[in-house]
Specification:
extended, two-stranded parallel ribbon, alpha+beta, three-stranded antiparallel beta sheet
Amino acid sequence: MMPSLMAGDVVVFDRYYCSFMMIALLLNQKVDVCARLHHLRRADFRKGHRLGKYDHLSVWTRPDRPAWMNERTYATIPETLELRELRYAIVECMQGGLMSQAALQKECDELLKRIAECRVGDRPGRLEPRVIKPRRHGYPLMQKPRDVLRAELRKHCT
């Protein structure tokens, strides 16, 4: 994906890709990044240069070199990144008024349809089955109410 991006492009990521190294590599290519903050990284709006309510500039420091990155690439990564962090909520319609529940549902459905139509890179032969991952402990999924399962267990235990 990285070689296909050009200076001036804007990349929109989910929170999985919101890492120092990924952002730094993209900024080195002059590519702008918009991503949700990774769930383990907290935004403290009391720190950094305040731009407004829930809007500030934050400084991230470079972590140690990850195993997947060679030393030459790591040397091109800056020591710090100054990033803009903001919190927002999508509740307003383009006309400026609040949306009704039906209109909001329609907008969400349209957005999800557009996202589903997007191709995510050229991966010939790649198939993604829609199944639940294997359970870690090998226990089956609970598909009956808990009290019914307890009654069945009592019947077989006595």
